[in-house]
Structure formats: C-alpha cells, structure tokens
C-alpha cells in the first residue's frame, strides 16, 4: 500500500474517533442549566446570608448559606485567641480590612454587629452584641463548655456590603457531642410554649410563623432589635448560616426565608415578653420538593419540646 493511502486512511479514522467523542460528550456531559443553577449564574444576587437586608433568599426561592468563610471581599474575622478555657470568658476579635481593623459600621437591626457563638453540635447558642474599642477590637463575655465552637459575625462596614464571617474557636476539656434528635418544632422555655410552623422544602420560598403562649394563652410579643422576633437558622454539619427577620407590621413573628439545601437545621428564636428576652430552639428536617416535613402553627397547640437555655445580650 502506498504511503499516501495509509496517511489518508489514518486521518479518516482520526476524524471519525473525534466526532464520536464530541457526540458522546454532548450526550453524557453536564446539563448547562444544572451547571448554571449550581454555580449561581442567574444574574445579580444579594449578599450571602443577608439578601434583601433580611438574611433570607435571593429571589425566586434561592438561598445561600453564609458564615462558611473566615475571609471574603477584603474582610477577615480575626479572633484574638483561637483557644479559650471553659467557663465565662472574654471573647475578643477584630474585623480586618485592607487598611487594618475596621472601625466604622452601619447600624443594622439596632446594632453595629451581631455575634453568634455556638458549639459545633449546635448547643450553647448565644446571640450577643459586643462593644468595640477605639482601635476596632470587639469584646464580649460568653459562656463556653469544652468542645469545638463556631463564631459568626454579621455586620456591614460603613459604605460597604454586609458580610457574615465565621471562625473556629476551641475550648479544651472532655467533650461529648449532643445528638440533635428528630424534627421538633415545639419548645418549652421558662414558662412559655413556642410553636414554629411553616414549610421546610429546600430551594423554595418559605414563610415560618412562631406562636408564643403561656398558660394556654397567646402572648403579645414586645419589639426586640426593631422587630417582633429574631430568628437564626444553622445547618447541621457545616453550620451554614441563615439570618432572617419577621415580616414588618406582622401580628405574629412571621419570617420569610429559603433553605439552601436538604438536611437538618437548628433554628433559634429570640423573643421578648415582660421585658425579658428568651430563646426557643427547634430542629427541622428540610427535604426536597414533594417531601415537606413542615407543620402549621395556629397558636393553640402547646409545645411539648424541651427548650434550651441560651445566652442573650439585652
């Protein structure tokens, strides 16, 4: 066989192989719509964890868990000490910017900075509001048990975008994680029964309603941080953070949010009555479309769950 004939035959086979590979790639490769959905390529989005300034989802039921990074967009959460002993301790930290510690913040929900301190097993929840020194160092007293903790700072530097940053804190000592248990949307805290109703479906817009009663009677909640109540949702596993607030002028504590993924979430409701702030904790199972484990709260059911004792900053 002549050399030219062999070359032409080889080129024909090569073209055939490449063509088959291209066709297989088109058939087996990722769906472009799925890639866009996973990477968030849908146009403009609000800041993670606080879209629309309410910490819920960015339109059309989309949601992003915040607080998973220690640094983003030129801001870093820096703890003065990454290890602290058990007990009541001072927690100090700075928010570092491009030119050093940030010292100017916008007031959001009556505070310049909201700090969440919670153990990795989602116990020991504390929502506190530190005070800032002139040099930009924030300080606050917190109660710590042995184990790994997560510190989440929710803030908006003056003239900048809002952020939720997270850092790990370790407390030495004997530690045994507490199980979350099954879904429980009712809680008893102090003398109150609290029920959380709504839909818990990943990626869908949801309205959650909290009803607080005492001795079988629904109580009128007092404003706290400029709202009827304050809700924090944390995803088990990575402690992805959703920070939501109630509908304005609502008679009850009503929240709008969207859960970013299926899984177990721990929700903490701060509410104020008779001048005292209380915290009720719930466990919710978030499922995919068509598998909703949510319930509806009507303000008449008494909670059967056992509430946790959580810290507050009054």
Can you walk through the features of this model?
- It contains two helices and 20 strands.
- With 314 residues, the protein is mainly beta.
- It has three domains: 3-30; 65-171, Immunoglobulin-like (Sandwich), CATH 2.60.40.1930; 186-312, Immunoglobulins (Immunoglobulin-like, Sandwich).
- A hairpin with a 4-residue loop joins strand 7 and strand 8 (137-144).
- The protein is globular.
Question: How would you concisely characterize the structure shown here?
Answer:
Residues 39-48, 289-300 have a biased composition (Basic and acidic residues). With 314 residues, the protein is mostly beta strands.
Write the layout of secondary structure elements.
Elements (H helix, E strand, L loop, with lengths): L2 H26 L3 H8 L31 E2 L2 E5 L7 E11 L2 E2 L11 E7 L6 E3 L2 E2 L4 E8 L2 E9 L7 E9 L14 E4 L2 E6 L7 E10 L2 E2 L11 E6 L5 E4 L8 E6 L4 E11 L2 E11 L24 E2 L2
Parallel strand pairs: 6-20
Antiparallel strand pairs: 1-2, 2-3, 3-4, 3-8, 5-6, 5-9, 7-8, 9-10, 11-12, 12-13, 13-14, 13-17, 15-16, 15-18, 18-19
Protein name: DUF748 domain-containing protein
């Amino acid at each position: 066989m002549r050399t030219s004939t062999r070359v032409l035959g080889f080129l024909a086979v090569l073209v055939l192989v490449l063509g088959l590979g291209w066709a297989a790639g088109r058939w087996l490769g990722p769906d472009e719509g799925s890639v866009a959905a996973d990477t968030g390529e849908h146009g403009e989005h609000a800041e993670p964890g606080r879209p629309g300034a309410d910490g819920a989802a960015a339109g059309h039921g989309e949601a992003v868990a915040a607080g998973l990074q220690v640094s983003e967009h030129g801001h870093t959460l820096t703890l003065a000490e990454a290890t602290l002993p058990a007990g009541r301790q001072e927690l100090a930290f700075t928010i570092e910017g491009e030119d050093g510690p940030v010292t100017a913040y916008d007031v959001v929900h009556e505070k310049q900075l909201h700090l969440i301190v919670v153990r990795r097993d989602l116990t020991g929840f504390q929502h506190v509001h530190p005070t800032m020194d002139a040099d930009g160092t924030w300080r606050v007293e917190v109660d710590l048990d042995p184990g790994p903790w997560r510190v989440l700072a929710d803030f908006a530097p003056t003239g900048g975008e809002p952020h939720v940053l997270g850092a790990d804190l370790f407390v030495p000592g004997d530690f045994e994680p507490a199980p979350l248990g099954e879904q429980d949307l009712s809680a008893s805290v102090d003398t109150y029964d609290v029920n959380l109703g709504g839909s818990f479906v990943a990626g869908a817009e949801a309205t959650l309603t909290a009803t607080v009663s005492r001795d079988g009677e629904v109580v009128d909640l007092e404003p706290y941080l400029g709202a009827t109540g304050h809700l924090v949702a944390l995803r088990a596993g990575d402690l992805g953070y959703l920070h939501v607030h109630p509908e304005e002028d609502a008679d009850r504590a009503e929240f709008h949010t969207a859960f970013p993924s299926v899984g177990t979430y721990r929700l903490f409701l701060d509410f104020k009555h008779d001048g005292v702030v209380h915290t009720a904790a719930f466990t919710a199972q978030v499922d995919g479309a068509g598998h909703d484990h949510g319930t509806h709260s009507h303000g008449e059911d008494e909670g059967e769950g056992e509430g946790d004792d959580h810290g507050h900053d009054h």
